[in-house]
Design brief:
A 6-stranded mixed beta sheet has the order 2-6-5-1-4-3, with no helix packed on it. A 4-stranded antiparallel beta sheet has the order 8-9-7-10. The protein folds into 2 domains: 71 residues, Sandwich (HSP40/DNAj peptide-binding domain); 62 residues, UreE, C-terminal domain (Alpha-Beta Plaits, 2-Layer Sandwich), CATH 3.30.70.790. The chain is built from 2 helices and 10 strands. The longest helix is centred in the middle third of the chain and has 13 residues. It is mostly beta strands. 13% of the residues lie in helices and 39% in strands.
Length: 166
């Protein structure tokens, strides 16, 4: 089985080195060690030194030579628009208060993974919310650090008391 042992930024490798592609959701683009299947149906082992986030266009360096091009999968997401910049900032605060990964698009549109509870909350706060299919690449944050752990993206659990008033 092929082995990918390093992630290389999209700006640091040459596409002629491509030995295939792998299309992954946001959740699957933050890993350390897992068996994956590339877009041609061929398995490979991702075996990194620590959990690493990789983005659309990055490469997974194969020990056998070459690079697998990472593609961001099309996902079920919500695009959120506020009435003005202040309203949008408030919406972003409410989303962040729920420890939800957030992508900021050009023009200040916010994008999150689809969640019916958050959709209804945001609509209740006066946001315009559209459910669309698009790649999801949220802002890097504390959940992306190598110490964050492979599966939880560093999101803490709520075993301590804390309020989510908005």
């Amino acid at each position: 089985m092929r082995h990918a042992t390093q992630v290389i930024s999209k700006s640091k490798w040459v596409p002629t080195e491509t030995k295939g592609t792998v299309t992954l959701s946001f959740e699957d683009r933050f890993r350390r060690r897992v068996r994956l299947i590339d877009d041609a149906g061929e398995p490979f082992l991702l075996d990194l030194a620590h959990a690493t986030r990789f983005e659309d266009g990055d490469g997974l360096v194969l020990t056998e030579g070459g690079v697998l091009l990472v593609r961001a999968a099309i996902e079920d997401v919500l695009e959120i628009t506020g009435k003005d910049s202040q309203h949008t900032a408030r919406l972003a605060w409410h989303i962040g208060n729920r420890h939800t990964p957030l992508e900021v698009l050009p023009g200040g549109i916010l994008r999150i993974q689809y969640d019916h509870v958050l959709m209804h909350m945001l609509e209740g706060l006066g946001a315009t919310v559209l459910r669309v299919s698009a790649p999801f690449a949220p802002e890097a944050g504390a959940y992306d650090s190598p110490q964050a752990g492979e599966e939880g993206h560093g999101r803490h659990d709520h075993t301590h008391a804390h309020s989510h008033h908005g």
